[in-house]
Design goal:
Oligomer: heterodimer
Mean pLDDT of chain B: 87
Largest interface: A-B, 107 and 82 residues
Distance between the termini of chain B: 65 Å
Number of domains of chain A: 2
Strand content of chain A: 15-25%
Strand order of the largest sheet of chain A: 2-1-5-4-3-6-7
Largest sheet of chain A: 7 strands, antiparallel
Number of helices of chain A: 11
Helix content of chain B: 25-40%
Distance between the termini of chain A: 71 Å
Radius of gyration of chain A: 23 Å
Structural class of chain B: alpha+beta
Strand content of chain B: 25-35%
Largest sheet of chain B: 9 strands, mixed
Chain lengths: 552, 705
Amino acid sequence: MTNRHAQDIDPIRLEVMKNAFDAIADEMALMLMRAAYSPIVRDSMDYSTAICDANGQTLAQGVTTPMHLGSFYDAMQYLITTFENDIHPGDTFIANDPYAAAGQHLPDIYIIEPIFHDDVLVGWTTTLAHHADVGGIVPGSNAMGAVEIYQEGLRLPFLKLVERGKPNEAIWSIIRLNVRIPEMVEGDLRAQMAASHAGRRSFLDLVERYGIDDVLACAEELHNYAERLGRAEIRDLPKGTYRFTDHLDGLGETPETITIQLAVTIHEETISVDFEGTSPQVAGGLNTPLPFTKASVYTALRSIMQSEIPNCHGFERVVEVTAPKGTLVNSVHPAPCGARGITGYRTIDAMFGALAQAVPDRVTADGMGGSTIPTFSGVHEGKAFVFSETAMGTWGATSAHDGQVGVPHMGANQANVPIEMIEANYPLRIRQYGIAPDTGGAGKFRGGNAFIREYEYIGETDGLFSLRSDKRKHLPHGLFGGENGTAPVNLLITEQGEQELPVMVTNPHVIRKGDVFRHISPSGGGFGPAEERDPSLIEADMEAGLITSDAR
Amino acid sequence: MTGSLRIAADIGGTFTDVAMIRGNETIATRKVASTPDDYARGVAEGILELIEVEELKPSDVGEVMHACTVATNAILEAKGARTALVTTEGFRDVLEMRRIRVPRLYDPLYEKPPALSPRKWRFEVTERLDWQGQIITPLDEQSVERVIEQIRAAKVDAVAVCLLHSYANPAHEVRIGEMLKAALPNIFVSLSVDILPELREYERTSTTVINSYVGPPVKRYLDSLRARLANAGLPERFFMMHSAGGIIDSRTVIRKPAQIVECGPAAGVIGARAIVTEAGFPDAIAFDMGGTTAKASLIVNGELLRADDYEVGGGISLSSKLAKGGGYALKLPVIDISEVGAGGGSIVWRDRAGALKVGPHSAGAAPGPACYDAGGTEPTVTDANMVLGYLNPVALAGGAVTVNPQPSQDALNRVVAEPLGISLDEAAFGVHELVSTIMTRAVKSVTTFRGHDPRDFAMIAFGGNGGVHSVSLARSLQVPTVIVPPAAGVLSALGLLYADIETSASGSLLAPLEGVDATRVLASYGALIDQTANELGLPRSSLKFVQEIDLRYKGQAFELTLPLPAGSQFTESDTEQLVNIFHDEHQRAYGYRLKDTPVEIVTLRVTARVPRTETGMASYEGTGKAREMTTRMVYFGPQWGRLETPIMERAALTAKAQSGPLIIEEYEGTTIVPPDCKVHIDQTGNIIIALPRQVRLTQSAEAAE
């Protein structure tokens, strides 16, 4: 197909093309955000965009959600294998199923477009967005209590949403009928289509300028380059096997601890990660198919590397991930996975726990463990509504500074939803949003403080409330003598009084007007012994009200 | 009685540029060193110098126009006022929590920029409104009094007040403002309802805090400048540019000092707009390349593009529109300018896998590029241009800086050519091309990222390196024409002379467009018109008002700003027309429309402008006789290799197009015309370069649309 080969590409042309690929992925991400509807896409930015080569290997990714990135490859392989010889100009593909399409979890819907040049498939534009609802037993479709995937909502294998330019209305009808908020889902899907369309056009502009041979050869060489960079980084890491065990508190009213156990082995120029010892898959939405586990591992490893490694597939060649089938991190059909994000976060946390032993200056102590997701649903102004957001975040301390507050998890660069937007659109009032004093694990450098977010339901008719959080039993760990962070608080305050909710609610609660959900996040772990802390930092914390006199 | 002369001064990091238009409509300019201890001194001195050179008297000056970096520097150098924040109970930390996102992925060691109002000076008062402005908890004035005592004890210089949902009902903020002013008359106070009465609490709080933070330093500066101008016998009343490119009376700046944070870059774009409009290219990309950064912005049909998601001091990021969170959100009208860290001084290096990189580190003015022979050993973009023969091998800036090509060659050989096993020429040309690609991201972020096709635009190049890189940048974006104006190095100062007196105001009005209460909308527009007229302090009859409206599909988070059709009274047919315009514009920007989704109003905007009477540009005064033409061997890429290339002055160009290769050298900078381009000069002295025509999108791609 190509007359030029990767080895013919000089570093200058490669860098030129890398910048061009990045610009396309960013352009797609910006367009998707601006055209989207749901708070979780447009405000939280829980979505990803990428351009891939003809083999479905990612070439560039928009600056959004790292955990999505590494999973694209397996979905693309599934698509390419399924539709071999039946991929045409003007096609648009849709899918979401973890088992029938190597998807992530049902709310994450892929919209994928092939790019053709002179009738030859030369690449793909890929978008993935978290939709506010895809049906199933709970509004928001992130049921912790589902015991099999059939309960989690609409399952789509790879289908042609558009075939040779002709929209497949049947699929639209099925989607509209199966989701609680069809207008919002359709709006977000159209935003994804607009973004992939724009990406395809820009890619073809690039082909126009440099010629197809050069573009394809550069794409191939970009993977080689990322691999070389990865190998160069790994050569400098201390060799050995580093083990770590982390936990999820568990599901429902009587949670049973779930274990993630991993061993990171740093070889001469490659790294292998094995999950032997991890708990079996569970009867609840926490299971993760292997592609997502791999993506979480890549995210953690990429974070300790110092070079600007391109966000492309080549980097993944230096990492091998293995996990026993049927475990939490390599689940098999029909294990539910609606709330699998938290397992991905914990996988990244466990990776950092292991890597702290190898490169203590390049990691933080443990943080809040990814987003807390409250989900409110009901009827507002005569229409069904679902509101959920990814509330983040706090980091552990590092060897050089205190833990940061008001930051995302390393796995997902997502934003908060403006309070004024929430109150204008939903029957909710936010009563408090800010930093919780007297939190954060003590240490030479203190863990980041917890944050408080308090919601009051003000709907006239009863609604439903569900919650995903973690780290009450298994606190964010400190490092090298630093103390652990503090546990989360999840209070449901009603006329009947206060009720501490389970960290992972499996049966949604009925809520009435005036009911309040008060969340205090976990806080970050400290770094180094507390007695080594600079007294002036303690004084500054007291002045800022981060340490109250009650606590001293 | 003062004279009628208009004179402009623009402060840059190193130089303060002064420009004026002479009686015979020609341009006079002067560069003097900036005076960081008190920038006002340099401004006054520069103006007096130019007047003296031109044999004029201070009393001949009628108007002084000005742009400065005082507000920006206060933020970038963390030297603003000690600033307190007063906010709604429960929301003290909105400012510090920000929007959570960080500007970089994969960086566990990232540290957030500290809040401009630290937590110890952030105070809560008891009150609460809902999103429609209805009072849920009345303002507890005792809680305000307690906070006032805490503010007094903290000895701050400035206070920002931002309450939840105040955009929908200003009463509580206004009352707190009254109480603060009565109790603490010497403290600078900003209310969010005066600064940015718009939805989204973090952005509104941050903008209001910035306003308070820069208020005291800006006031000190303006007072100093006013005194110095008066002492020099110059007019005490002067005008300043704001970030959206309009000119306002300096006395009104202090009501909203945050509006001048980006006035310097804005002035350059205003200058560019004046030139391209006169030259007959109303659609143009303004490209400004200096020593450390390159900036791009867009002029569409003679109008500037504004940004709605701006951050101050975010650092230079290759994808600034997405990589947010590194700076301070400032949501005031600003010209949409995107920036990348690539300039003449940017250092060329190779990473550990051998890839070639340019910037963001810069050799700066000292030691400067290797060719300055002042101790710089790392190759820079300027060194690559030196090796290629694009720059004069003896001296730059009309002889002001002597140079030596040998260190350039040595540095590029060592870092690029030898390790990659390529020739020195190939290495230097590779660097030149790579810089262009990096800069395309700046251009893309104001064009394709916003739904504009760069091929529909001309490019106007300015700044010290604009003319050296503009053609290769234009080529990579398929831009057909490049314009290099005279005095390209002081275009910002010139821009001040060409700007309109204008100001704008906006207000949130969240309502469905169809069936909207026309009286309410018209009353809101009326209030905004009053506000802008008051800010300009000019009779309404002398002003022209432009009304705009932000619309979106119900449920979308982002709006499109559309001009309000003339005479719209929001009748049923008016709103129907607006809905259709919105559908069309959405289709253009995002490629689809949602016919059945309701359209809603988010924000109303009004700009008040003093129509300019004289629109003509200063005419170009050639030096008469061109210097004797020389030639040198210049490398134009593997296709042409080294070619003997004529080196000439601008004055030697004619209205008749000449073919490249050509190089135009002047005090302001160098302009490169490659062999396959044609160049001529127009009647106002602009160099116009025509690139060879390129074929647009392929057939197969069009078919798949």
